[in-house]
Write a structure and sequence with these properties.
The chain is an all-beta fold. The chain contains one helix and 20 strands.
Amino acid sequence: MIDRVNIMHREIEPDKLTMQDDWILIEKIKKEKSKGGIWIAGKAGVRTEHCYGRVVSLGRGMCAEADGKIYPMDLKIGDTILSMDYLGEKMQHTIDDRNFRAIREHAVWAKVKLGPNLEVLDIEPYLNRVLVKITEKGITQGGIQLPSSHQLRGYTVANVVKVGPGWLDLKTGFRYPMETKPGDQVIMTRYAGSICTADSEELRLIEERPYMEGDPQPDILCVCEGVKGFEYD
């Protein structure tokens, strides 16, 4: 049974809360119990932890401005998700050593499958996220080596393992298809995304997004054309 959460000095059962729009209530899974640690990679190797959470309640989804259609989230109660640890910090409460927090849909990086010891068995990227495997020494499948000067500037080569369904434009209701696909090789920013371990394999979760003025540099710079496809078991 889910414990009570004290909100504004009132006791409320978490499973009695009805989340609105694209808000999601999760119960955070303790990181110290996990064998597959997850961090976000930062400059100079600085990492900020990610967290897992079990979906307790979720809203109906967002309404598109163009046609008023409701677009439900591809989540259900009981799902385990991966999110940045700092997201939802201002809307959380801990009771009896259990942490609950409210996040928006865009804060979900992936749906994950955990084993009996909370080890990560599988990762399914969410929205516009991409799961990749970094190649050694920045060499493409076609034998092209990324110059060391580029690597020093912070670029590396990665093989695409899985991709999410794409980003939904809530003004038009259009879901932008992913430009990358499993098997592609990409040149990406070296410290982009989050380092994760699934089934004892070290992988990386990054974002695919178009460049917009004022935005930080995109995670994926380009797709390496004309190289042999990469197969991932």
